[in-house]
Please model this.
Amino acid sequence: MSRRVVGPFNRVEGDLEITLDVEGAKVREARVSAPLYRGFEQMLVGRDPSDALVYTPRICGICSVAQSVASARALGMLMGIAAPDNGRLATNLVLANENVADHLTHFYLFFMPDFTDSIYAHAPWHAAAAARFAAVKGAATRAVLPARAEFLRLMGLLAGKWPHSLAIQPGGTTRAVAAQERVRLLALLHGFRGFLEATLFGAELEMVSELDSDAALMAWFAAGDPLRSDFTHFLHIAEALQLARLGQGRGRFMSYGAYDEHDGPLFQGGVWQDGVHSAVPVEAIAEDLSHSWLEYRSTPRHPCDGVTVPAVPDGHGYSWCKAPRLGGQVVEVGALARQMVDGHPLVRDLVARGGANVRSRVIARALEIARVVIAMERWAKELRPGEPFCHHGELPDIAQGAGLVEAARGSLGHWLSVRNGRIHNYQIIAPTTWNFSPRDADGVPGALEQALVGTPVHEGESNPITVQHVVRSFDPCMACTVH
Amino acid sequence: MSAHEHRLNLLWLQSGGCGGCSMSLLGAEAPSLLTALDGAGIEVLWHPALSAENGTDVLDRFERILRGELVLDILCLEGAVMRGPGGSGLFHVLAGTGRPMAAWLEALAPRARHVLAVGSCAAFGGISSGGGNPTEACGLQYEGDEPGGLLGEAFHSRSGLPVVNVAGCPVHPNWVLETLAQLSLDGLDATALDPLNRPRSYTDHLVHHGCPRNEFYEYKASAEHMSELGCMMEHLGCMGTQAHADCNTRLWNGEGSCLRGGFACINCTRPGFEEPGHVFGLTRKIAGIPVGLPTDMPKAWYVALGSLAKAATPPRLKQNAVADHIVVPPKTGDKT
Model:
């Protein structure tokens, strides 16, 4: 058996180190470490509760709006207020803008460049992949940035700027949209749809969103040039490398439900396990600190009375990340989980055939781009200029609240208690805290640690490429993880 | 091809921060990030979000720089330097090395021709040093508004400049790109930096300049809640009249700014913005007068002009100031 430490691990958000025990050209065990501690949960204690709206978005530059929404929801629960319809729609648009831009960033800048690695130089598909997806130089890399920047003009209009906006408030959004701005939003969305249909998919968004099985997906793929779009390019490489066999998850998925429609979420929330859908037992969430560089390791705690006190890093633990568990069990979160729990037929079929894996995670993200952009166009049309966007309320001196939201990378929760008008406790569980958690007290590895077991590794490879595919298929955000 | 014969290489490191300055940078427009870097004659040696290389391939480059085999032109740090716990730097160990990032930065900075602190965390500590600073975070050459930080007040990079503090939370993409382009084209001299070593190209301006609420400001027609159109200085904690940045003339994501987004400026380019001494979004007042008045205006004049303006406020502005959309349009002139 040999041990390899992989780091710095780039094209993920934030800092990540992976220790691999390799035996017989396969990963036997993996340990995932977050080597940076940020301290936000300590910094927030004692502050005015509304300061959380300034601090928490700055936990993460790529999930900034999702952090705002979680914080605003927690504060809104304290204040007993909710957004008017316009505020709900504008919040959806801003959050969707971030989530879709993140999916795009992941696909083009973080994930696809792996296939341009020289280790694949002899593969027949390598030259085309390198021309299209090479880091910095690739044609697609250069094409996606202007499209993404133009799409993010929605942020300029609805949230002032991205990241780190204060536009998301407990009672709605601060930026009322006038009639001409509503049509401008639609024009921007139309432009972005054009990029997606011409470049990412080579197909209409509606067609992509209506694919209902792996067979339907592959029939569409086979009906033309495999390199006719960047998504088909991925499917082509995924076939060649058998990416559906890589990075197997355990098939237990969670989503808090995403985007508020007037009668419930656009994507239904819940837990999916063994073919059964159930509500998320939020009270059964507990964070285990047994393998973290944190004090108070003995008992897992629910985040509403969670504790974060850093310890001096020692041999006891191996990460600044906590180990959240749902009813004592590891769950996977993210776009795949969200679409599984919501019951999209394509994703249900992919998981039924091959489980959670590198290929199904990437397909779920692409599918979600199509589904969400269609919804964004509808939300922009539903805005009613002249009607209110924001309600206002008072913060109580003593209260407790929680804000749950789906960020691009999965389920994000804020748990907040207020005493004497000040923050008494503030605990955050971020998506990658779930996916990249260390082991718990029973020695059960986290979701990525499990997914890495059995990954084939080539001899002499110090930064195994297969491991990189698996890690990046989760689209980790380490900045959030180590808040 | 770029017009530059000698291309400068750039190493970008991240430490105690959110990665938001890189995300902001990716949103550069007209031209986009990669085109702008190309045009400025900047070659990315390594960036954690953009580059292909991982692990040992990256560490080899760091070692070659330290051995003097690879000349480093520009070192950018994003995020604060994490000195804790107890000065050990162990709150951020660079993955794969077992060595604190603070130690890597101390070793690499003297090798660089130019050193840039990108964002308020890297410049001054920023939000990462807020709330009692549990991680002992500081900037590369400042700790809040005190010179020092990790590298010390006397530090100069090989170009002779101190650390260039491209402050902001996050930075505007073009604050960074234009600073890099100027370094590449003619270099920068000390007169291009303000007293906090921020590029004067954007800190010689105030956020107040070009604020779409200026007419409300002139007549002291104030918003009472966020989302309303009026001036946010009197009640909602806006620091735009004191904040050094060109946010309302340059605009963000093509068409925005904090003020345009309906919320107050929190002066994020300033050292210590993370601890304003009052609740964000509420103006601190003494005897009804905001404490933070425009920095270079005599207080008595401000108060006198303010009360005069308030007496003359047109009803249109009074009503619009507390509405979230225009309820009274400007009068269309009578035919003459």
User: Anything to note?
Assistant: The longest strand of chain B covers residues 8-14. DSSP finds eleven helices and 13 strands in chain B. Residues 205-325 of chain B form a domain with the Cytochrome-c3 Hydrogenase; Chain A, domain 2 fold (CATH 4.10.480.10). The two ends of chain B are 59 Å apart (CA to CA).
